[in-house]
Specification:
The chain has 427 residues and is an alpha+beta fold. β9, α14 and β10 form a beta-alpha-beta unit. The structure holds glutamine.
Length: 427
């Protein structure tokens, strides 16, 4: 069977309607781009890339570089230091606004140009030269895309020839001491980062890397720490679409970033990366057909991040108490599914209700995963059962619950089946 996903993507391209909007013309090289190119790609976090349209055609990444450069600044300097210089509040302003927060003099967020220039300057060592910073950024973006990306020199020269606004912003940043380098160097480096060439396929893979918490889907390499990926996605969610962020949040509902060459990158954490490309832009500087495709796909495929998930099947699959030959009680609690806070709470509530037993068996054979919060909650439950005098055993052949010695009174006994309880009567 041929997968229906590429056919669905091709259908999205057919259905996205007539093009409206205009090419970005403040960068001469973009004004001469072919306006009719159109592509959509979807990458799963385990590395399958689906594509439709002109998915191999290259364009400059522009502002879609901003989340990755912010990520690099965070990885290099740590969150507290980056927050000292760049806030995380939506600005409600256009991307190229000359703006700083009134009291702190910080750029409002790293997705608008003022914050992005600052993030660029925070990469690596403050003494680094332009080439060193750009090379580090190029390497990170290449690692996320899974192939070597290059700076398009023509695009860079073209944008530099008209970079009056970004130079004004950088001089403003320097005059308030937000950046310490020569403003012209910061604009030169930032403009090179924006001129890195990508395809729609690259962007979908880069989005999937963020969606996977920083692990590149095809190489399996951890390219960013998990906490950095979370911070970047959070800022994309609130600030990535500039002065259309609220509209985007309510309709598409995915952390995203757009660029003036016509790309949009969006990520659904834990599931997939999505990218679209179509050069004509709306008044916010977002690809018009790109926004339409993302809106339609989010609604068709239920991708909105605020869409409440279907209630999971009951976590406690079975809960039985048996009487052993010596008259003492044994309780066997069998769980299923993926355990996180709310499902672990359900288990704690059920177990707290029962009478005291001499033996408590936690059967995890049908549990697919246990996140850290659930692991700590279950460990505490087992510890308390032990303090109350119960012996505890785990039926966990796949080791989904990894207990540390200090988390329980005694490490539970591990069983491979319920055979030790055979013959005991149910009460
Ligand atoms: N290089 C562009 C600029 O700084 C990027 C803007 C964008 O893509 N929104 O103006």
């Amino acid at each position: 069977m041929r997968s229906p996903v590429p056919d669905y993507l091709a259908e999205m391209l057919r259905a996205c309607g007539d093009d409206a909007g205009a090419l970005a013309d403040y960068i001469p090289e973009l004004a001469s781009a072919d306006p009719d190119r159109l592509a959509v790609c979807l990458s799963t976090i385990d590395g399958t890339l689906y594509r439709a349209g002109d998915s191999d055609s290259e364009f400059s990444v522009q502002s879609i570089s901003k989340p990755f450069v912010y990520a690099l600044a965070l990885a290099d300097r740590g969150l507290p230091e980056v927050l000292r210089w760049i806030d995380v509040e939506p600005s409600g302003e256009a991307f190229d606004e000359l703006s700083l927060e009134r009291d702190s003099r910080r750029p409002r967020n790293p997705m608008i140009n003022a914050g992005a220039l600052t993030a660029h300057a925070l990469v690596g060592d403050p003494e680094d030269d332009v080439d060193t910073r750009v090379e580090r950024i190029r390497r990170l973006m290449s690692a996320c895309a899974g192939r070597e990306l290059q700076v398009d020199r023509r695009m860079y020269e073209s944008e530099m020839s008209q970079a009056y606004r970004n130079l004004a912003i950088a001089h403003m940043l320097r005059s308030y001491g937000v950046i310490s380098q020569d403003p012209r160097d910061v604009v030169s480096g930032y403009t090179q980062q924006c001129a890195i060439s990508v395809t729609t396929g690259d962007l979908a893979t880069m989005a999937a890397t963020l969606a996977a918490g920083g692990v590149q889907p095809t190489t399996g390499e951890r390219v960013l720490p998990m906490q950095v990926a979370r911070q970047v996605l959070s800022v994309m969610m609130t600030c990535g679409m500039y002065d259309a962020a609220g509209d985007w949040m309510t309709t598409v509902g995915l952390p995203a970033k757009s660029g003036v060459s016509g790309g949009i990158l969006a990520a659904l954490p834990g599931q997939l990366g999505l990218a679209v490309f179509s050069p004509r832009l709306d008044s916010h500087g977002h690809s018009t057909r790109g926004v339409r495709i993302c809106t339609r796909m989010s609604s068709d495929m239920g991708l909105h991040i605020m869409q409440a998930p279907e209630p999971a099947r009951s976590t406690v699959r079975r809960d039985r108490t048996l009487r052993r030959a010596d008259g003492s009680l044994a309780r066997v609690c069998s769980l299923q599914g993926a355990l996180q806070f709310s499902s672990a709470e359900r288990v704690l509530r059920t177990v707290a209700d029962g009478r005291s037993v001499a033996l408590f068996v936690l059967d995890l054979r049908r549990v697919s995963s246990v996140n850290d919060a659930a692991r700590r909650m279950l460990a505490e439950m087992l510890r308390r059962l032990q303090v109350d005098g119960a012996e505890v055993a785990l039926l966990d052949p796949d080791h989904v619950l990894d207990l540390a010695e200090q988390e329980v009174v005694r490490l539970p006994e591990r069983w491979s089946s319920l055979a030790p309880l055979a013959g005991h009567v149910r009460v």
